[in-house]
Amino acid sequence: MARWRLSRRKLLFLSVSFTSLLLFLHLPSSPHHFAFSPTSSLCNSRLHRISWTHSPSPTWSWDKSQNCDFQRFSSGHASELLRGAWILAAGDSQARLLLLALLRLLLDPAQVSNVEPDLFRRHSDYQLTLPDRGIKIDFVWAPYESNITHLLRDIQLTPRYPDLLILGSGLWHMLHITSPSHYGAALAQIKRAAESLFEQSISLHPHMFWLGLPKLVNSMLNTEEKKVKMTGTMLEAYDREVDMRGILNGSSGPFMLLDIGRLTRGCGKHCTLDGMHYHDAVYDAAVNIMLNSMLIESQ
């Protein structure tokens, strides 16, 4: 499989297929204003400004007043953007749900129904290839931060690195270890491993995203242990560790945040049945935020 670069894909769009892309993305006619206005960095900071409606089921849209031409990706556009890419997601059930949302975008409904049981096989890894698009997709069950650190170090020993990394953890740590400071120290290890991977990838830097923790609706959690340990106060402490440890690009870290917490707060408690896992629309929004961020980053 050829090494994938988003910048190469963008250049292809802006040359041979620029006219069709304008129709597809509703872009302005000048390539100097490619999709985002007034500035890419400003628009990147506005990606999570989502509005929600709940009738008859949760749906989302971007706030049109923010003057950024964000795109709601179609299957064809997502497939073209990711053509030739190796996508690696690692983490717990939140990472599975995010990857499922990406598969819903890339595959038809019958294909999604076929792959979903394997993707959600308890505590297992998953792999899928889409030969017609050259896309390779891996999910690695990595519920603890040490699992992710070991994965990043193992990747450095391979001849090829993923083009898109989607990582996240914290729920298992909160339930089974219940120590924000310990969680923060583990995040620092992830940061060092990710920075090392980024440095060794020379000019072909992978796109790295970190999944934020969802809002926990304590009264809806399905065990007493979860209700005792996974409180709002504890969630805030874990979120503070993410901010303090500098893993996010806003603090010079390697990861762009996919703010699942903000999205789940926006969707509300009627979007969850167990206080932890949310409606498909939440993860669909996160996938579109991720893909738009990749376009912004490519400029």
TrEMBL record:
Keywords: Membrane, Signal, Transmembrane, Transmembrane helix. It is found in: Membrane. It comes from the Eukaryota. GO terms for biological process: xylan biosynthetic process. One of its GO terms (cellular component) is Golgi apparatus. One of its GO terms (molecular function) is acetyltransferase activity. The keyword Signal applies. Residues 1-24 form the signal peptide. PANTHER family: N-ACETYLNEURAMINATE 9-O-ACETYLTRANSFERASE, PROTEIN ALTERED XYLOGLUCAN 9. This is GDSL/SGNH-like Acyl-Esterase family found in Pmr5 and Cas1p.
